[in-house]
Design goal:
- It contains eleven helices and six strands.
- The protein is an alpha+beta fold.
- It has a four-stranded antiparallel β-sheet.
- A hairpin with a 2-residue loop joins strand 2 and strand 3.
- It is elongated, with a radius of gyration of 38 Å.
Length: about 425
């Protein structure tokens, strides 16, 4: 008897060792096959906008402009001219001709240089703003799609369980084959949605890896992520009521100023009343200084202006830029009102759904039915389906709120306002670039 117990104990010990080794091997395989997700801080991800590749050409332009000079000399060019009379070098004539610039060309050229520099700088700010917005949108898309994927997988399981239950009732008299067919269709649709969302997640992760070099699955640190209530309070407290600081409006304004200065410079260049000033020396008359030296002056007649066509073209470009600025200003104001209205409506819808959620009628019913013995599993599955669909609807509205919130920050210019802030974090922490 003792021998039998000893053998049993040995077999049990051996089994435990085998089980431990099996679990360890399985865990090791999981670690090898499934790479650990790389957690990324949201603010660090947004900070990568400063190094976006689209900024490189604009930075190069700015470096060139900073290294160049804005000084325009009074003379357009200077020529040294020589003329030989009858191919005799003793009868040579020399002239030094100074071509002047138009009236106030120097001042207007400097203004054009400053306007060009400002336009280039504003264009760089616009590209940075757009790069930052792309990261916000990408982050929100990732979090939303991941949440929808988790809910859709649960819904697929509910539909699968429903198909299993209905198949188990095939031999009952009250069995309706249409219910089974509809359940199978719902299960198939849920499977397709899951596959689509998994593909979407992979695409989004590939885009994220273009900005942040991470290995394995992408994961964000969302502990400090703001909620809808904070977004609502932020909108009310901040008072996004103007679009004057919008980067798109600033870019349009800089283009308007650039077109204006080009027009003014073109007018100045055509006001060349003195075409050139010439000083000559005739070697043939070198014995008489009063006759050897001479001064010439060329004056343009004001009623003949060959540059009028170019002036008109510059004026049309200036008026076009002015018109575009005014149209953009009105359009941004209209977009601001529309986005604000949509965002306010979405927040109200979310509040209504959350109010229903707090009542917990479906959850209470589910808990009650689960305690009842012999309850029809189809009833439980129906309640689970209802709860999941409500969570999916909440997730979609939450996604639209975040999207409209970013659009509001975009149209008001707050998104890239210095110092940079993480507007989807609690407390709007500073983004250090």
């Amino acid at each position: 008897m003792l021998f039998v117990k000893t053998q049993s104990l040995q077999r049990c010990s051996t089994c435990r060792i085998v089980n431990i080794l099996t679990c360890a091997a399985a865990f090791l395989c999981i670690c090898i096959v499934c790479p650990e997700a790389s957690e990324i801080r949201v603010s660090d991800f947004l900070a990568t906008s400063e190094n976006d590749y689209v900024l490189d050409p604009q930075n190069e332009k700015m470096d060139f402009l900073y290294s160049s000079s804005s000084n325009t000399p009074f003379f357009d060019r200077i020529e040294l001219r020589t003329q030989t009379d009858q191919f005799e070098f003793s009868r040579q004539k020399y002239s030094l001709r100074f071509y002047t610039n138009g009236w106030n060309v120097t001042g207007n050229a400097k203004k054009l240089y400053n306007a060009t520099l400002q336009s280039t700088r504003t264009k760089r700010d616009l590209l940075f703003h757009q790069a930052l917005k792309r990261r916000y949108v990408l982050l929100i898309d990732f979090l939303h799609t991941r949440n929808m994927l988790a809910l859709q997988r649960k819904l697929k399981k509910v539909y699968g369980d429903r198909v299993t239950v209905l198949k188990s009732r095939k031999n009952k008299l009250d069995f309706d084959v249409n219910n089974l067919l509809m359940a199978e269709d719902s299960h198939m649709e849920a499977q397709i949605k899951v596959m689509d969302m998994e593909n979407s997640i992979r695409r989004i992760e590939d885009k994220i890896r273009q900005y942040v070099p991470v290995e394995g699955a992408v994961e964000f640190d969302t502990d400090n992520l703001t909620d809808i209530d904070f977004i609502r309070e932020t909108i009310w407290q901040t008072g996004f009521s103007t679009v004057e600081n919008n980067i798109y409006l600033k870019q349009s304004s800089s283009r308007l100023e650039l077109a204006k200065n080009r027009y003014e410079l073109e007018k100045s260049e055509n006001r060349k009343y003195v075409r050139y000033l010439e000083v000559s020396y005739n070697n043939n008359k070198r014995h008489d200084a009063t006759e050897a030296y001479s001064v010439g002056l060329a004056i343009s007649l004001p009623f003949i202006n060959s540059g009028r066509i170019e002036i008109n073209r510059m004026k049309l470009q200036f008026l076009t830029a002015k018109s575009r600025y005014e149209v953009l200003k009105r359009m941004l104001a209209e977009n601001f009102k529309m986005i604000s209205s949509n965002l306010e409506n979405l927040v109200r819808q979310y509040g209504v759904l959350m109010g229903k959620n707090r009542e917990g009628i479906a959850e209470s019913a589910l808990k009650t039915y689960m305690r009842v013995e012999g309850i029809d599993p189809m009833v439980l599955l129906k309640i689970k389906e209802k709860l999941l669909k409500r969570d999916i609807l909440l997730g979609k509205i939450r996604y639209e709120i975040y999207t409209k919130y970013i659009e509001l920050l975009d149209v008001t210019g707050k998104l890239s306002e210095r110092p940079l802030k993480n507007y989807i974090s609690v407390g709007m922490e500073e983004v250090k670039t």
